[in-house]
């Protein structure tokens, strides 16, 4: 097993997740089996109870793990399926060690950070690195580890910044681990920022020098320094970093801001990273990548040449931070690229569509409605809580009545049912029991197995099967006319099965349900170009070269090409 540790410096959010994913993609293109691990130093057991404004979206895995959104990057780039144990947190490690102590595994010894916590980190990494993540179920050969830990104010990729107090046990664990794994099996990549102040226009290397110095002071020496910058870095800067950070010039890699993340693996490959890994880790590979990386290059080239634009309005409550809907954005982008369109995603705060906003700030209200009206399609994603739901209902009502292509995901589907009940069945107080426990028409109810005590891990989570109950379904055709699909879920509430017949009589069809037939999974509205709701989260399974069918359907309908696509047998035009 070869281990590649990715650390980061200077600031957080520098893109070490994309760098780690891109390195994995390059090595996979060379024929190697690659897995990935993300280390986060927070004490939470997992990301399940975070507000999206804390760390961005909560990404859900097949096994129901609620994890950091970077694992979504790994899955999309590498086309693999990870597990909840691929996301290590301080909480998980301490819980694991404390459970062993209570069980008597330490034979009465004093349990300490060193060696017990650091040993637990190393054992977890070694065990999880062996777990197959590809469809062929073979053991991986390479494990890319992104770690957040920072050197005293300078960010690093052990999941945060090196120097954070909470990250120090992980730093020490990997200082020891590099000797346990042996030099030929362990490589450290440090991602750093090269800022360029507007006042001088000069690219500054001092932050990178300080970051590398702090990392070395903790016992880890970078084999590669990946420099992030807004603009391409000059050769003189590369030579300066090489000299003051004690590495060869070929060990300094530049990644400037690019039009799409698809370009990042190409930039790395162009700077000789395959040849370096082959020599440094004794990898049995050729110097040139395979067809996989060529496909990435073609995809990146195609992305940059797109001329046609498709606009989608995303109506949600966490619109101030795009990372809150990272997988939704990627799923839309994958689908837009598949039909040769550039995506114009317009974020609309659902509260700004509500009547209360018109009274408080009429400019915001009219601007939000202007964006909604000019969009080619409308998407209402998942979420929790009552804030902004009336605005989402307004958007859904507009999409239904004006025959605008619409996709509702999780809460978006539930609200589509609520809107239909209120305006088509004339059940004016219809609601979800999440928002009104005493409603006379509870069209959305809490799950039977939900335990309202603990918040963490109590939802219906992970990959579940959805069975199509009719041949006459747009989504079934988009899925290739399969009898069932398996997608990831994350919800507590769902459509009340006792009331579904009332909706079906009026044209809102429940075309998919769970294997027992009790849980409604997919809705489709008759006599509408595309009005679809799904209880699951198809965005988590979308891949750059395999777009998610519900999202692809939305983009096709928004560009007026859905019928032609279905008539071609669900084949994209060249």
From TrEMBL:
Residue ranges annotated for the CTP synthase N-terminal domain, each copy included: 2-283
InterPro entries documented for this protein: Class_I_gatase-like, CTP_synthase, CTP_synthase_N, GATASE, GATase1_CTP_Synthase, P-loop_NTPase
Ligase as UniProt keyword: yes
Domain Glutamine amidotransferase span(s) in chain numbering: 321-550
Any single GO CC term annotated in Swiss-Prot or TrEMBL for this entry: cytoplasm
Annotated EC: 6.3.4.2
Nucleotide-binding is among the record's keywords: yes
Single Gene Ontology BP annotation: pyrimidine nucleobase biosynthetic process
Alphabetized GO MF terms: ATP binding; CTP synthase activity; identical protein binding
Top-level EC class: ligase
Family: Belongs to the CTP synthase family.
Name of the protein in its database record: CTP synthase
Native source organism of the sequence: Fregetta grallaria
């Amino acid at each position: 097993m070869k281990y590649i540790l990715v650390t980061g410096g200077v600031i957080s959010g520098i893109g070490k997740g994309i760098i780690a994913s891109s390195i994995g993609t390059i090595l996979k293109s060379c024929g190697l089996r690659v897995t990935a691990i993300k280390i986060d130093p927070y004490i939470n057991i997992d990301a399940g109870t975070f507000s999206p404004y804390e760390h961005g979206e909560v990404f859900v895995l097949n096994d129901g793990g609620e994890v950091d959104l970077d694992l979504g990057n790994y899955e999309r780039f590498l086309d693999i399926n990870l597990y909840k144990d691929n996301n290590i947190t301080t909480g998980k490690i301490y819980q694991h060690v404390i459970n062993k102590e209570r069980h008597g595994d330490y034979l009465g010894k004093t349990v300490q950070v060193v060696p017990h916590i650091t040993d637990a980190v190393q054992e977890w990494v070694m065990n999880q690195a062996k777990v197959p993540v590809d469809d062929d179920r073979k053991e991986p050969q390479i494990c890319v580890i992104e770690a957040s830990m920072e050197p005293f104010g300078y960010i690093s990729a052990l999941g945060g910044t090196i120097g954070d107090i909470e990250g120090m046990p992980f730093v020490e664990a990997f200082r020891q681990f590099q000797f346990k794994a042996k030099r030929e099996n362990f490589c450290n990549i440090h991602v750093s920022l090269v800022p360029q102040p507007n006042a001088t226009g000069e690219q500054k290397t001092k932050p990178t020098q300080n970051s590398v110095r702090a990392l070395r002071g903790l016992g880890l020496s970078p084999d590669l320094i990946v420099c992030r910058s807004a603009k391409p870095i000059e050769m003189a800067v590369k030579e300066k970093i090489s000299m003051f950070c004690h590495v060869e010039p070929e060990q300094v890699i530049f990644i400037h801001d690019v039009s799409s993340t698809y370009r990042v693996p190409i930039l790395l490959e162009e700077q000789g990273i395959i040849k370096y890994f082959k020599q440094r880790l004794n990898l049995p590979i050729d110097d040139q990548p395979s067809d996989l990386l060529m496909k990435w290059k073609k995809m990146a080239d195609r992305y940059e040449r797109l001329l046609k634009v498709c606009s989608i309005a995303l109506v949600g409550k966490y619109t101030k931070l795009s990372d809150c809907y990272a997988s939704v954005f990627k799923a839309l982008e994958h689908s837009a690229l598949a039909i040769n369109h550039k995506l114009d995603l317009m974020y609309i705060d659902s509260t700004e569509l509500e009547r209360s906003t018109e009274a408080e700030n009429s400019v915001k209200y009219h601007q939000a409605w202007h964006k909604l009206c000019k969009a080619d399609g409308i998407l209402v994603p998942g979420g929790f809580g009552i804030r902004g739901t009336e605005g989402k209902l307004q958007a859904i009502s507009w999409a239904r009545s004006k025959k605008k292509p619409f996709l509702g995901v999780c809460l978006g589907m539930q609200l589509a049912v609520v809107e239909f009940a209120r305006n088509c069945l004339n059940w004016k107080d219809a609601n979800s029991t999440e928002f009104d426990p005493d409603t006379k028409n509870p069209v959305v109810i809490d799950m039977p197995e939900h335990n309202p005590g603990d918040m963490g891990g109590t939802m219906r989570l992970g990959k579940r099967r959805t069975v199509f109950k009719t041949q006459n379904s747009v989504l079934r055709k988009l899925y290739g006319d399969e009898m069932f699909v398996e997608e990831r879920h994350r919800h507590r509430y769902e459509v009340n099965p006792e009331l579904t017949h009332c909706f079906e009589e009026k044209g809102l069809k429940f075309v998919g349900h769970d294997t027992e037939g009790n849980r409604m999974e997919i809705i489709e509205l008759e006599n509408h170009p595309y009005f679809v709701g799904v209880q699951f989260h198809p965005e988590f399974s979308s891949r750059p070269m395999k777009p998610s069918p519900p999202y692809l359907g939305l983009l096709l309908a928004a560009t007026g090409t859905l019928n032609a696509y279905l008539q071609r047998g669900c084949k994209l035009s060249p």
